[in-house]
Sequence to fold (304 residues):
Amino acid sequence: MKKVDKIWMDGKLVNWDDARIHVLTHTLHYGLGVFEGIRCYLCHDGTSAVFRLTEHIDRLFDSAAIGMMTIPFSKEDLCTAVLETLRVNKLKEAYIRPIAFISDGEMGLYVSNYPVRVAIACWPWGAYLGEEGLAMGIRAKISSFTRHHVNVGMTKAKICGNYVNSILAKREVISAGYDEAILLDTEGYISEASGENIFIVKDGELKTTPPTSILKGITRDAIMEIARDTGILVAEQRFSRDELYIADECFFTGTAAEVTPVREVDDRTIGAGKPGPITKQLQTNFFAAAHGKIEKYKKWLTCL
Ligand SMILES: *Cc1c(COP(=O)(O)O)cnc(C)c1O
Fold:
């Protein structure tokens, strides 16, 4: 990870190396913390803009509400803090990681007070699944680990502890030689990838998992809107793994992974084994929107 100068912590900018916490931090032990992943892109006119900042901060507060955590800042405070952290580090393009966590002071699952602290870090981060993956597509495998049952994991929240499931799934398929894990829901339907939502294309129409066992991605939402604006039909509908095997195209969406084509699932070639035409069109439009090249989608950008 490329270090930068400052990290925002509890309302102040501190040096990267000084952004430390105590080893008895409650979240470190039990996993109740919430976070976000946001990206800032360099626009064609030389300015920089954060992609869907308010939606990400809204979701951070939703995650906190699900986790019964009270964030001691307003949404406006945190939006301003994200912009300030980018500016002070002179970052034109970056990945941004806000996290709200329970501090130290008491131990045990039930504590009388859950003191919430907030930090925002940002650093330069390229394509999460690799530049080659973005261009040529990746190889995915369905993990033997199941996505959280909706009454276990609270999948609508980006809760720290939920990601143990994702890490186990990802490590399993990477050691088997694949690039990314796909998880099934507890009823056996396709849910999502370890940190990305999934789309398939069949006969020119787009399908994605409904927001049941998945984290409702903001990139997923952007892709659905871009697709509908281009006249592509989008269905939010459950599908099975065999439907995925015979799809014409498949891709993942997420802030980190952006729009990554999938060329193979479980050793079966998807479509022509390379990014399909609809995937490529949506990927191109997504990047154009994020880089401020499409007037209609400038509503998604907050300039630095
Ligand atoms: C963050 C995340 C996504 C993608 O959400 P975006 O808002 O597009 O970044 C998808 N699935 C999981 C499990 C995630 O944690």
